Fold each of these.
Amino acid sequence: MKSIKEMTQGELAAFIQSHLREKGIDVVLSGGASVSIYSSNRYVSLDLDLVNPYFAKRRALRETMQEIGFHEEGRHFEHPDTQLFVEFPPGPLAVGVEPVKQVNELKFSTGMLRIISPTDCVKDRLAGYYHWGDLQCLEQAVLVAQANRIDLEEIERWSEVEGKLDEFKRIRDQLTGRET
Amino acid sequence: MLEPILGSLNCERVLVFILARKEGYAREIARFFDTDLNPVQKQLEKLEVGGVLVSRTAGRTHLYSFNPRYPFLKELRSLLEKALSFYPEEESEELMMSRRRPRRRGKPL
């Protein structure tokens, strides 16, 4: 097994998840780190958002993270051998108003990584763009959309549920790569 | 009104205030309900950690508002609106009717 110092972001997330799973704690990678993984690091995020959909107790998370050398710093966890820090946003696992139905599993040498799908990753980033006008979120959505097979019709349906169909139509071609 | 569900009177106060005013900060909320600052701050922090609220900084003030990405926001708003309709008329009017438009600095009135 690699040391934490040598692990990539995906490997570290898989390692942490596997360790938590042994203790009965199931978490799912979401947020910026999922963009990093789906964009082959064309976007770099230093935080690992491991969504805690079943509301595992903070104390259990703390104790389990301490076993693999992480210590709690406010709301996140740090390790002396990595710049990456880990957060456990509370559930539910959702994109906008809808629950995430499909979770992907990626196999790493350090364990199995449970991560939102590329389509949900695009939705997650678009939510930031739709609700806060955050252009970095849009850029990240485009990176993921162009590097992965995504379900554009599903993103359109979801955008409509979010009340953002007009915004989706405006950025649709960016997602498909027909416009930059 | 919602204390049995929310588990805290200050939690209800914070949520109802933000429903009515769109955003708010701890001192303003505590002052409105004539209550201590500390428990209001704690509720705001708890709701932010839970993803219900988001905050932004304006000068030295943390302004809180509903997180538009909170998946139960529509349902929460409905519940709070219903609760607000049960508030004494004077209190709900006072909550809703605050000056939100800008005021030029130095203007006497």
Note: Chain B is about 55% helix and 15% strand.
Amino acid sequence: MSTEALITAPAPGVKLRTEHVGMVFERDGKSVSVLEAIDLEVRDGEFICLVGPSGCGKSTLLNVMGGFLPPTSGSVTIDRELVHGPDPRRILVFQERGVFPWLTVEGNIGFGLSKLSGAERDQRIAHYVQMMRLQGFEQSYPSDLSGGMKQRLQVARALAVNPDILYLDEPFGALDSVTRLIMRGELLRIWQTERRTIIFVTHDIDEAVQLADRVVVLSSRPAKIQDILTIDIAHPRNISSARYLEHRDDLLRKIGLAYTV
Amino acid sequence: MNLPVRLRPVAFIAVLLIIWQAAVNCHPGQLLPGPWGVVRGINDLLRHGLLLKYVVASLFRVTWGFLLAAVIAIPLGLAIGWYRRAEMAFNPLVQIFRPISPLAWIPIAILWFGVGDLAAIFLIFVGCFFPLLVTAMSAVHNVPSVYVNVGRNFGLGTADLVYRVIYPAVVPQLIIGSRITLGIAWLVVVAAEMIAVNSGLGFLIIDARNAGNRYDLVIGGMVIIGTIGLLLDLGMRSLERVKSFRWSYSEN
């Protein structure tokens, strides 16, 4: 039976849908189940955070959604189309080493734009250099950039190809806490101006509550969806408000449960 | 005494040369010519036009042997490294051939190509082929999978992936491998020229001994070989400073 036959009509406004996604890895002759029956619907323009204990399979789920790993069972559909592999319409931003060290800032941002004319490409590059505040570094190589700038560069390169979904795999995990806070603000600013669907993997509770429309809590391995929290606070969020702290405590309790299961 | 740092090695070498000369003066004999004798020997070679001729002959063989090996071994190694199945097929063969000294090929080289340039070039080719092949194979393995995934994410097909991601990612490792391999080529050419040809710096050394125990020329040849080897290495090193290659040396 083809997987296509399993797909039922999604609700209107649904951008991405995982249907009973399961993932089993073979390691040293043993099968390890990493994902189990993940059913999730992500609406167009929604900001989703995936949280869960480390090693639970958050990144695996993101890679399955991005088409880098075919799921062992179930299916991922985007705009009612089955995902078969990676696609420039949705770009994954990696935690580290995502930018090409042999290309300048301009070269990296223009990496996905080889089909555009020279003038169009230059204009697109200039736009995202400015948006990601990389002015003055156009000709620099990544080895001359700070960690935060490298991640901004990676986001700029992703946005430059105008994707409709952005997958971010703990993109700020390797940065210091101040830079991390600034980067979150920048990401929200971009999300509000460009309105892409964002799926963001993190193990940082605060990060999730600060950013997400909905937080998907995964259990420890094999990961199942344990809970989905809606964070109904308008941006910019006051991170010392009672409302914020309530959501944070709620999420912490749920994660705490996830750790003990 | 307060010598500038850069002059210290020069001063040290000068002191060694003086000790060498003094030792030879104290015990004049056949065991070793003095530095002054070596300088006169090199001067003799220069005046007869032999030095330039031999240097050019050696460099000619190294250049061709090395380039031929690079043109064949690097693309082949990249392809083998990329396709896991090809690697499983080729790797045992590579591992058997790799430890064989290129000098073991001398009889075969002479049998196939006779005494002459071709035999020497073949020996250098063999000496460079396996190090370059192994370098290219491992260079592909060391490409972080993130780079490949990013390339695929932006919709690159296999040809573009190789040209725009794999190739730039392996260049720094290929430069290091090439630098080491060129050093090997320069070692091999001397040995090859002692047997397989009638010119070049290796021939100079063996001929100076056989034709009249001219040990000043033997040492002179060694000095020239060392100097040119150093220059070749400096040349290859300068490639490592190119901006778009330099990233892998700083390890960001």
Note: Chain A has two domains: 3-86+164-173+199-260, 90-162.
